[in-house]
Amino acid sequence: MSDYAGKLSSLVQKKQQLLHEESRLIEKRKKEIGQLAEKFNLLTMSDALITGLFSEAQIAIKDKSEKIQNWENNGVQFLKSKRDSKATEDRPT
Question: What is the C-alpha to C-alpha distance for residues 31 and 57, in angstroms, rounded to an integer?
Fold first, then answer.
């Protein structure tokens, strides 16, 4: 019987660790999204505008719209150009 108690206790501990890790990752992602909003000067936009943006994205995702692939491609290009320009800045001359 005590073997089961030990296993259950171990599982409870693992579950708590996973929940803590999940919370940490969610907070990290919220921070990253906030930084993107700041980069695009969205922090001063109205809640209605930001809600509309998220609503459009949610609908496009639900409908599996081709907009998603376009947005993804644009995002990749944007991030790549930012990385490339940062690498150029970091190179010694």
Answer: 19
